[in-house]
Design goal:
It is built from six helices and four strands. The strands form two sheets. The protein has a two-stranded antiparallel sheet with strand order 1-2. A two-stranded antiparallel sheet has the order 3-4.
Length: 111
């Protein structure tokens, strides 16, 4: 079990994570998305379904900085149940999420 059991006022018990262990999900997010996607152009999920991330203007290769830009908006999109992402995808020429617009990237079929 992750965290320490803590009894709440209503008598229920919840596991609470304090300190360094609380950073584990953030570290996993950082490893899985910006680093992996920045280095390979795709995460494991994108690889499985045959997709990759590219820059719209290929002046340089897609990298970690662009991937960080792509995923910086994840919290905003998730907080609003993906609605901002869906609206952006529906209304942009290259079907981009908010992060893709900022990073000037898009997701395409891998060759």
């Amino acid at each position: 079990v992750f965290g320490e059991p803590e009894v709440q006022e209503d008598g229920s018990v919840k596991n609470i994570v304090h300190g360094l262990p609380a950073l584990v999900p953030i570290g996993a997010w950082f490893l899985l998305f910006p680093i992996l996607e920045g280095a390979m152009g795709q995460t494991f999920g994108k690889k499985i379904v045959g997709l990759k991330v590219i820059l719209i203007s290929p002046k340089y290769d897609f990298g970690i900085i662009e991937s960080l830009k792509r995923h910086f908006t994840d919290l905003i999109e998730i907080s609003f149940l993906g609605i901002p992402a869906l609206l952006a995808i529906k209304n942009t020429q290259h079907r981009q999420r908010l992060g893709d617009i900022w990073a000037k990237s898009t997701v395409v079929l891998a060759n």
